[in-house]
Amino acid sequence: MSNTRFTVDDLKRILSEGSGEPEGVGLREDTVDTEFTEIGYDSLALLETNSRIEREYGLRLDEELLETTTTPRALIRLVNDQLTSA
Amino acid sequence: MTATVVVTGLGVAAPNGLGAEDYWNAVLRGVSGIDRLTRFDPTPYPATLAGEITGFDASASLPGRLLPQTDRMTQLALVGADCAFADAGVRPAELPEYDMGVVTASSSGGFEFGQNELRNLWAKGNEYVSAYQSFAWFYAVNSGQISIRNGMRGPSGVVVSDQAGGLDAVAQARRQIRKGTPLMMSGGIDASLCPWGWAALITSGRLSTGVDPATAYLPFDGRAAGHVPGEGGALLVLEDAEAALTRAAPHIYGEVAGYGATFDPAPGSGREPGLRAAIERALEDAGTRPAEVDVVFADAAALPELDRVEVEAITAVFGPRGVPVTAPKTTTGRLYSGAAALDLATALLAMRDDVIPPTTGVRLAEDYDIDLVTGAPRLLAPLRTALVLARGQGGFNSAVLVREFRGHRG
Questions:
Q1: What CATH code would you report for A8-85?
Q2: What is the pLDDT of residues B316-341, one digit of tens each?
Q3: Which of B65, B113, B129, B132 is most worth mutating to test chain A (most A CB atoms within 10 A of its CB)?
Q4: Which InterPro entries does the record associate with it (chain B) (predicted)?
Q5: Which of B11, B67, B152, B361 makes the best surface tag, with the fewest CB within 10 Å?
């Protein structure tokens, strides 16, 4: 993962800035495979998060791929794939 | 279905007191929350005074996830609802979701949130507008967020009728209880003291341009020249009386006994304004004679023409100086959708303590033949029945009669 430019910490910061801190543990290294809804972020929070990622990293995330992206690990991978191919 | 509907919990957010008891103590002492605006610099505007709530820290009372998606009015409303539930001794998580609903009033939605996102739109571009703008500005957002936070899935909605809304919402909540929902949260909390909200309020032409907080808002006074806006309001837990008795509710503040609402005739028609008819309908609905009413909480527009209309409506129903009248909103400013809900809470506290809070700072104009309670609180025991009046810009008139609950306990 040497080309990883978008990390768990980046996602955690963006989630928090756009949608606030959830109750419970939220996003950590050990919850990257937990569904977003389970760690306290609903679909609107993800919409806001994706919008923030796009403008911060200068990307356009594929909406169809986003619909099937339900865990932090999957979203981080999707963003890094796009960053690498860009 | 005409089940008796009672108020069992109060949540108050007012410029002169956060929480029902702090507010009530301030009102009885005539302490005002009106002062020069501090939320933004009002210097460029013709009106510079407001009733601001100070010392409210949303982050201390609400989950972090709610903060980026809520306007100030919604944050105040969520905390107000928590206070009302606590006062009522109700834990909503323990009740069936469909047995609880929410009907609040709104006048303009979440202005400050909307202003920030509009600024993002024109200063940075549409990709900078928060996804939460989709609902954070919306009229119904307080009802929605209260419903979600407390798991209340019964009949819910919003009423938009400017300052009459606080009463119209409570009437709608009463209807839902009579149709079978045992508990409703109702009332209104408003807050639009930001530059965009201020500009919108100024367009009403009804704001006072006075700069002295003690004399800027003087309803029924010969010096009346408009009102001072404020933020806040009240949320009330309403219940079916039988249900409240069955669960041994800690307080039953009173019964929502009567409601009347009318709409004014078109301007220039020469026909009588609708306020008197609204009062009469509320009395009729409650089965109460005018002589049984112990106090009237006035709408108190503080514009000579509107004050005269209100004085004429009150004297037509109750006779000259036929009933004590008061407008403690002189200490908060007019709170739009929050105003009448706060007046209802105030009326219920007045009944609890057998005392009428004063209309502060006002010298009654000589040609108004009403018994206005000014200066100091007036003790009146027993104070069993209160009438609350509210008018919304555009022709809305509403009246709610609350009275002591005389049902059986246990």
A1: 1.10.1200.10
A2: 999 999 999 999 999 999 999 999 99
A3: B65
A4: Beta-ketoacyl_synthase, Ketoacyl_synth_C, Ketoacyl_synth_N, PKS_Beta-ketoAc_synthase_dom, Thiolase-like
A5: B67
